[in-house]
Amino acid sequence: MPIEIERKFLVANDHWRSAAIKSDKLVDGLIGEFNGSKIRVRIGQHETSLSVKGPRAGTTRTEFEYDIPDADAAAILKTVCDQHLFEKTRHTVEHAGFIWSIDVYEGRLAGIIIAEIELEDENQYFEKPDWVDLEVTDDPRFHKRTMGRMCQAAGRPLTIQEILAIPIRAA
Questions:
Q1: Coil, strand, or helix at residue 133?
Q2: CATH (domain of 41)
Q3: pLDDT-derived band of residue 169, with 50, 70 and 90 as boundaries?
Q4: Distance (Å, whole) CA 89 – CA 39
Q5: N or C: which end of the chain has fewer CB within 10 A?
Q6: Using CA atoms, how far apart are residues 8 and 4, in angstroms rounded to an integer?
């Protein structure tokens, strides 16, 4: 069974930018969520996919990902995802033998930058770059759908500091 072991961090500075080896504009659409699971469609510049992610157990969850035709993904975004769209540019950075994804959000999440690293084991050691800040893996305020709801309620994009000021229970 395919699994994803992922940790997420806020970004402290722009030092990662000079190390970026590629970038991809992405649009994610949330199709549905239930019992901690979610289904999402993604359109990138080079591929489109449909993902089914199970509930998290720590930093681990099941993840099934399938390539789908571009036209199907566009139709799903238009007819199913409605207001649950998230735009970002994903930058890929190599650091100390690991690949990091730096997501720079646009649209209603403009200003949010999250660094992600995928691991082979939950306890795997990795060196944190100087541009990595607070870990938010287990912080529900930094799930895309939660940030989207908070920004929608505010009527504008929120800063990292504003999101951190919201009590976790209110998220």
A1: strand
A2: 2.40.320.10
A3: confident
A4: 20
A5: N
A6: 12
